[in-house]
Amino acid sequence: AQSVTQPDIHITVSEGASLELRCNYSYGATPYLFWYVQSPGQGLQLLLKYFSGDTLVQGIKGFEAEFKRSQSSFNLRKPSVHWSDAAEYFCAVGRGSTLGRLYFGRGTQLTVWP
Amino acid sequence: DTGVSQDPRHKITKRGQNVTFRCDPISEHNRLYWYRQTLGQGPEFLTYFQNEAQLEKSRLLSDRFSAERPKGSFSTLEIQRTEQGDSAMYLCASSSLGAGGHGYTFGSGTRLTVV
Lengths: 114, 115
Known about the structure:
- The structure holds two protein chains of two kinds.
- By secondary structure, chain A is an all-beta fold.
- Chain A contains no helices and twelve strands.
- In chain A, 0% of the residues lie in helices and 52% in strands.
- The N and C termini of chain A lie far apart (41 Å).
- Chain B has strands at residues 5-7, 10-13, 19-24, 31-37, 44-50, 53-57, 65-68, 75-79, 88-95, 105-106, 110-114.
- The mean pLDDT of chain B is 91.
- Chains A and B meet through strand 5, strand 6, strand 10 and strand 11 of A and strand 5, strand 9 and strand 10 of B.
């Protein structure tokens, strides 16, 4: 069965510091991988996605993620965090080209110190 | 296009009452999804439609839950005889068929509080 693990429940970084949020997935075939961000009381906004091709994908707001099949990971990175990046981040995996349901991790809450 | 709209944004209801939520997807999207999110957790899949056909339902969707998308456009999610455990954010999303390339577009959610 598909599953997603986000091992860090809460991460705190200083503004301007680099960021890496971890995501590990379990899926037997080639996964479709996503990172979403959620601000308090809001829906989810897509940051970036991976389906195939270049394993380093660029997203919005200066985020990037790298797919590593050997490690079943899809970690999210940002070289310099801004205070406005404080939010909850969710990794998700989908199956097949027709997608259907997504399986989400439990999320990582990011706090940014000024 | 205004994105995915959900109504109401907030709902407080007494235990045992029925509630209904509405979702209006992006007009050209033929797939519509319902998820439930509780505090400190990621969204959990409930069900999804392709046009008016309900293609998959989670075991989370008990007999008290029913979802419809009668004309393949908007959808409703009804919870009968609400329980305190139903308190959660209910998220709707839409996509085009095979739109893995675009992922989903989520609405802002309906927050349900059962008292």
